[in-house]
Amino acid sequence: MKTFEAIFNHSPSVVTEAPGHVNLLGEHTDYNDGYVLPMTIPQRARVAAWPNGGAEFAVYSADLDRLARFTLDGPPAERFASCVYGCVRETVAAGVSVAPLDIHIVSSVPTGVGLSSSAALEVAALRALGKLFAAHWDDVAIARRAQQAAIRHTGVHCSITDRVASSLARDARMLFLDTRTLERRVLPLPADSEILVVDSGIPRTLANSACSERRGECESAARALGVPALRDVMDATAAERLPAPLSLRARHVITENERVLQAVRGVSAAEFGRLMNASHGSLRDDYAVSVTALDQLVELLQRDSGVYGARLTGAGFGGACVALCHTGMAATVGSRVVTAYNKTGAVARVLVPGDAAEPDSSRAERHQ
Known about the structure:
The protein is of the alpha+beta class and 368 residues long. It folds into 2 domains: 4-188, 2-Layer Sandwich (Ribosomal Protein S5, domain 2); 193-352, GHMP kinase, C-terminal domain (Alpha-Beta Plaits). 38% of the residues lie in helices and 22% in strands. It contains 10 helices and 11 strands. The protein has helices at 4-8, 79-93, 117-132, 139-153, 161-168, 207-225, 246-264, 269-285, 292-303, 330-342; strands at residues 14-25, 35-51, 57-61, 66-70, 101-107, 173-178, 184-188, 193-199, 307-313, 320-326, 349-352. The strands form 2 sheets. Strands 1, 2, 3, 4, 5, 6 and 7 form a 7-stranded mixed beta sheet that branches. A 4-stranded antiparallel beta sheet has the order 9-10-8-11. β6 and β7 form a beta hairpin. α4 packs antiparallel against α5 (161-168). The longest helix is centred in the middle third of the chain and has 19 residues, at 207-225. 50% of the residues are buried.
């Protein structure tokens, strides 16, 4: 993998990074103004930069071995550079004077599995821009600008959750976030527990279109119930007044919000696991975003004696699963579950714990 020095023939003046994350509970609640419970993973995106004194920004992706160039008035054709372009444009929109840069990006956050690789890159890029050009932003401001960079410049209609998690969450702890108010708390995992994350190997081919459809259904359900968002409905029986599938979509959001609130009140690892199991059942049956392969992987995890509970994580239709395991058991559980699952011809792999394949971060500002 080519370094910054190998590509640009000098050293960077700033190196920053930001983590990917996994949702423990609170799936598809964010665009309903609800509650989420993410935590960071070891994998990170790293951005190294140096003012080049030229007329163009040069962005090199070490993972793709590709170089893109752009100006403020000319966005890059290459999709991998559009996140960085969006961050630069949002920095300028905030009134900060930005000079062209040489930028090197490298990431160990897996793409396409629901672990927020784009959010990690955006947050890392904005941290670098803030440091280089004396923009004194706090972590919430960075998350907001990252969200706008994605919406305005990459065409991704995302909520703020992924960006807040990447910007504000802390290693080995959960972040409780109210997506309407951005009230947040950092909380420990339940006692005697650790996280296992497994990539199912199933591409999330339908996730984007399905999320747009689910968002529309949730908005319709909220209008029918006479509330600004489904977050404002506290009793799941209210959903019974709606026709299907709106009743099912609403029931998932209402019950998922309650599962998050139960978890943050402080529960045992066993009870937290039961909440995760119930979350997966709701995502499968009421929200209809699981697929057979994910259900099979989750069932293997849930049946393992070292697991308290497990569920899909992210938008669904493929991607990753997350499990809450007994302390010291995650690696063993992951190995035996992946071995059993892959006998069907699948290509699942353990992402956490294990070799995170992190970029060299010896000089990076981790903000963790």
